[in-house]
C-alpha cells in the first residue's frame, strides 16, 4: 500500500514540475531550454574540443567565447545558411523546430556527464564529453583511497624522519588504473574562466570529478535496482572479491572474483584490481540486509542492462551511463525530443541521433516516428536548475559502451586521416544554424565537423553551402561524438607544422621568439607548435644576457635538434655550425652506423673521456685515448662543455643502445668486434710504437689491436726485447698474430706473437673457458699478474687460473715477485676446478711440467732455437748486407788493448753478464786485409785468469766463442784446453767438420740417438750459456740458461769451467767457406754464423729446477746436523723450515718445538722468521726432512758450531729460535735485508741516514722486536750532513771538518765496547726463562737491551699483558738520567701496542711517551713504526702533525717528502717542497732544496731534479759541496755527456787549489771508469792548464 502511494506521489510531483516548466518557457521549450547570460542565442558555439596537436602541454584548452550584444540582427551567414534549407525546413523554422546544442556556457557545477577517457597523463585524465567538449580530472579527484595515499605521501615528505616508504603509500600510475577509450561517469566540479585569478589558461576549462561519493550522490538508496549502472571505487581486496565504495552511506558494493574476471582479462591487462581504482559496474542483486549490493563489472553485461521504469522512484536516480527506454515525442530539424518514463523530457541532438548525417527534417521523419520507443543511453543530466535537463545518445558506440585498450586513432580505423592531415575532398551535408557544418569525408566511415568561428575564414563562411566540396585539414577528434574536427582556413591549410609528428629532426626552419626562461628560449614553430632552445644551443659563445640578441617577437633561423614524444617536447638549436652542417644526422638509433662522422656537442667531461650529444638525443662516449690528442691526461684541460666537435662512431652495443665514438676522424680503425673471435690468426699494420706496446690495425677488418712488446716472443729479457723493438717500423705489416682477448668496451683486441701460445692453440692446449679444461690436463699460458702470494696465468678471452706460492716451485719461495714476470710464457698443470665460482688452480712446478709427452709440440732445444731465430729475423735486412770475417769456433789472433778493472764499456760488447774485469782486444782475422776495419773482442775475467802471463800489447791466440748479430764484436776463449784440436797453422785437424772441428755427420748421429755428452761452460750470458764439447774437438755449442717456467738469473747456478751433461738438439746445415783468393770472395764470404750454431739442452735431475739462492741439496745434510733456516709455513701441527742457502725444507712438528707446552703456533711464529734447528731425520727417497727445536736436543757444542758448516753467516744472537717477531715487524726486517736498493743507494746520501740508523740500531738494540725502530738520533736533527760518504769536498775549513770527524769517530768508538760487552755477557748466560732475565737485570737494571729482550721472551710465550708489565716496570726502574735507555723502552711499548694492542692503548702509550721524552724523536719513531707495518694512512696523518708542530725542522719536511715520493705521490711531494720553504728559516732552504732535488733524481724525474740543481747553482756558484752532490747525482743517472759538461763548467770557476785538486781527482776517476784514453788525456791536460794559470 505504501509502495503504491509513493509511486503515485512521484508521478504527481513529476507532472507538476513539468507543468511548471511549460508555463515558465515557451511551448516546446527547445529554444530557451538553457539559461543564456545575454538572453539571446549566441552566434558561434565555443565548445571545448579535444585537440591532439598541442605539443607543450597535456591539457587541452577551450577558447574564450566572444561576447555578443543583447540584441543582434541575423547575420549574413545565417541568412545564407537559411536560404539553403529546403522548403520544409523554412516552414518549420521556429523555436520548436530545433534542438539547442550543448556548450560550455550552458554548464553548471554539479552537472553529470558520461565521458570517454582520451588521454592519460601522469597527474590527470583528459575526458571527451558530448558536443565536442573536453574535461579534466585531477589525480586527487578520482577516488577517496587514492586521495588518502596522496595525502600520506605529502605528509611523509614534510617529515624529516628517514622512514622507509610503505607499500600502502606507493602512488600507482594512472595508466595502470585507466585505459584509453574507457567510459566513466563524471561530475562537473569547477568551471574555469579566463577571468578567474587562479586560471591556468586563457580559455574556458571544465574540471571534473570521478569520486563515487560525488557522482552517485543524488542516487536514492531505495532506487537501487537490478540493471542500474553506477560508478564504484575499489575499497579493499578480499579473498573472494573486492569491497567497493559506491558513494551511498551505509551501503557497500561487493564484486566477486568471477564477476571481475572478464573485466580484468579484457581491460586491465590481466592485472588484479587495485585499491582506489574506479570502475563502472551494474547492479545484479541487492542483498537482504540492504547494506550490500552485489555488482558485476563484466563489460558485456554492463553495456546491455537497462534500468527498469518501475524500479526508479526519483528523477535524481537517472544518471548518465544508464540505458533507458524512451518514446519519441517530437521531431525537429536538428534533433528529436523524447519522453522518459512517460513524463520526463529528454533531447537527442543532431550529433547523437544517427551515425549518418540527416540533412533535413524529412530524413528525421523517415528515421523516427512520434510515439516510437527507442533505447538510448543517458549522456548528460543537470538537476541544478528548475528545468531538469536530460540528454541521450543513440550512437552505437555509446549505446554499446565500446571500450578499447588501444589508441583511439587505431580503434576507429582513422589512420588514413590523422590530426594534421589535409583531406582534399570533403562535402558539406548540413549547415547547423550559425554553429557550423557537418561534412562527409570521402572514403572514410566517419563524419567531419567545421565550426564557423575556429574552422573557417569569416570572409568565406558563405561558401560552406550544402553539397559544396572543399579542401580541409584535420585539427582534432571528438572521441565521444565520433567526429573529425576540420578546418578550411587558408592559414591552417598552409601551416608547415600543425602537429607534433609534422616536425622532423634535422629540419631547418624559421621560428619566432616567444619567451626567455632560465633554461633557454621558447620559440614558436607555428601557431600551435612550441619548442625550446637550451642555453647551450643559443650561440657559439656564452651569452650572459640572451635577451639582447634574441628579442621577443623576432624571427630567427633554427634547426630541429630532438623530439621527446613522451612529453611532446621539441628542442632546436641556433648554433650556426649545426644549422649549416652537411654531415649526416641521426633520426633514430637505427641510423647510427659504425664509421659515420657527424657533428656533436660535448655535454659532459669526465677524467676518462667526453660525453657527446648528437641529433635525436643520441649520446656517445669518447674515451680519452680517442680524443685525438697525444699524451692527454685530463680531458678537462683540452675540451669544454658546449664545444661542437666532429665525432666518428666506432662501436655500437645494440642491446644496451651504447655508442662509442672517436675524435680521430681520420683513423680508419674499426671497433666492431662482433666478427672476430679469440684464437683467430690475423695480420696487422703498425700504427704506433709506444714504450711497451705496439698499436696495430688488423687487416682487413681495420680493428685496432694492442700488442705488448713482451708478447712478441717467449724470451722477455730487456735486451732481447729492445733489439726486437728497434727493428719495428711504422706501417710495417706483422703476420702470425693471434687474438687473445677482446675489449668490447673500448673497442680493441689484444694480440700475441708468442710461439708457445700459438702452437698451444693449434694443439688445443690454450683454453678459453672452464669447459675446455679438466683436472690433470696440461695447458700453456702467460703470466697476467704477480702478487706476493700467487701468480695468475692468463689464457684466451680473459680466462685465467691461479698458482699459489706452494705450486710455483719444488721448494718454498717467499714471494714470486721477481721470479715470475708479467707476460712470461709458462706451462702448467690444472690441479683444481671449481665450477661454482668459475675458478681453477694451476701448478707451475718444474718437476710437474717437465714431462713433455703431454705437450709433444714442445721439443727440447726449441726454447734456445727460437731465441736465435728471432735474433736473425729482427736483423734480417742488416745481415743481408753484412759479411762476417770470422766464424764461431775459429782460432784467431788478437792484440790485448786494455785491462778492465770494473764494468765493461757500453760500446765494448753486447753482453749483460756482470764481468768485473777482463780484456778488451782487437781481433786479427786469418784472411785480414790491411784496409779492413778491425774486429773488437772481449776476453772475460774467468778466461783471462787461465793465463796469468798476458799483458797489455801482447798478441795472443783465442777461440771465437760468440759474436754479436753483425759480427763486429766477438767473445774469445783462451783457456788452454780449447787449443789441442787445432794444428799449428790455426786450422782444425778434422777437415770435414761443421767449422767447429767435428764432422756434421757425427753430430747428427748424436742428435738422432739423443746421447748425453759432457760439456764445459765457457761463458754464461743472460739468455744463453756457451759451452765446449771436450770429447768432440771442443765444438762450441749453445744452451738455454732459462726455461719457460724458470727465468731466474743463471749466474748462480752455472759457473765458468763447470762440467755438465748436455744433449744435442740442433745441428746446423753444412756451410761452405770460399777460398780467400776467390774472385767472388767479397760477395760469398762467410755467411753470418747465427744460423750455424750447434744447440744443446742441459740435462739435470729435474728439468728447469727453480733456483732460489744456492745449490745444496738433501744429500749435503745428515741427521743430527744443526742448521739455520727460515720459516716458510706455519700450520696447526707444526712449522716448515727452509735451510738457508739450499733447496731443502722440512717439518718441525709441534711437539718438537719447545720443551714447554705450546698452544698457538701462529702467535709465536710468522713466515720469514729466522730460526735454528737440528735435523732429526732424513728420508731421501721421499725427499722429507724432520727438524727439532727443543732446547734439550742441543748441547754446548751445538752453540759453538762452525758457521761454515751450513753456509750461514753468524747472526747477531745465537738465540734465534727465541726471536719471535710480529708479522709486520719481521716483514720489514726481511725487506731491509733483501731490498738493497734503499740501503745501497742511500749510503751516498747522509741526509737520509738509513744505513747509519740501522748501524746505530744494531749497536744499541739487536732485539728483533725493535728492528723497525731507529734507536739513536743525532743530537742536532737539523745539522748539515749533506755530503756523501764516498767523498767529501774540501771546504774553507777543511782542518776543522777533519777534526770534527775524528772526534765523532773517537766518540763512536768509545761507545762500542760497552755494548759489545753486554751482548757477550748475555750470550754466555743464554737466558731461557724469566728467572734468568730477572737475574741479569739485578746486575744491569738500567739496560734497556735486557728489558726489551725480556719483553721479547714473553711475546714468544704469547704473554702480551706480562710484556706490557715488564715495559712499565722498566720505566720505573731505569734511572732518570738514562734518557736514551728510557726512550728505547717507550719505543718498544709503542711497537708492541702497534702490533698487539688497540687504537686506544696505542694512543695512551703515545700520550705518555710525548710527556716523558723528546716529542720530535717520538713522533719520528712512530711514523717509522707505521710505515714499516704498512699503515700508510696513519703514517701520513702523523707526518701532518709533525710538520705542524716542528715546521722549523728541515728533517721532518724531508722525511715526509721521502714518504710521498716512495709511494708515487709525485704531485704531493712537489707541493710539499713549496710548502716547506714557507715555514723553514732561510738558512735551511738550500739544504732542504738539495734533499728534494736528490729525491727527484732517485725516485722522480731526473730532468726535474736537474732543473732544481741548475737553479741553485746559478744562485750559489761557489758552493763546491752542491756541485759535488749535483755531479754525483748525474753520475748515478748514467748520462756521461751531461757529467762531462758539468765537470767542464765547474773547473772553469774560481776555487782554491785544494778544491781544484778535489775536482780534477773526481773527474779523472770518472773518466777512468767510464771514458776512454782520449777523455782521460783531456782531463790531465785541463788540470795542467788550470794549475799553470793558478801559479
Automatic annotation (TrEMBL):
Residues 110-211, 227-298, 321-395, 420-489, 506-575, 595-664, 679-754, 776-845, 1120-1190 form the S1 motif domain. Transmembrane segments: none annotated. One of its GO terms (cellular component) is small-subunit processome. GO terms for biological process: rRNA processing. Coiled coil: none annotated. GO terms for molecular function: RNA binding. Residues 1283-1292 have a biased composition (Polar residues). It comes from the Eukaryota. SMART domains: HAT, S1. Residues 1196-1222, 1234-1248 have a biased composition (Acidic residues). InterPro entries: HAT, HAT_Syf1_CNRKL1_C, NA-bd_OB-fold, OB_Rrp5, Rrp5, Rrp5_OB_4th, Rrp5_S1, Rrp5_S1_rpt_hs1_sc1. TPR repeats lie at residues 1450-1483. The keyword Ubl conjugation applies. Residues 38-49, 1311-1326 have a biased composition (Basic and acidic residues). Keywords: Acetylation, Isopeptide bond, Nucleus, Phosphoprotein, Repeat, rRNA processing, TPR repeat, Ubl conjugation. SUPFAM superfamilies: Nucleic acid-binding proteins, TPR-like. PROSITE patterns: S1 (PS50126), TPR (PS50005). It is found in: Nucleus, Nucleolus. Residues 1-80, 1195-1326 are annotated as: Disordered. Residues 66-76 have a biased composition (Basic residues). Interacts with NF-kappa-B p50/NFKB1 and NF-kappa-B p65/RELA. Essential for the generation of mature 18S rRNA, specifically necessary for cleavages at sites A0, 1 and 2 of the 47S precursor. Directly interacts with U3 snoRNA. This is Protein RRP5 homolog. It comes from Rhizophagus irregularis.
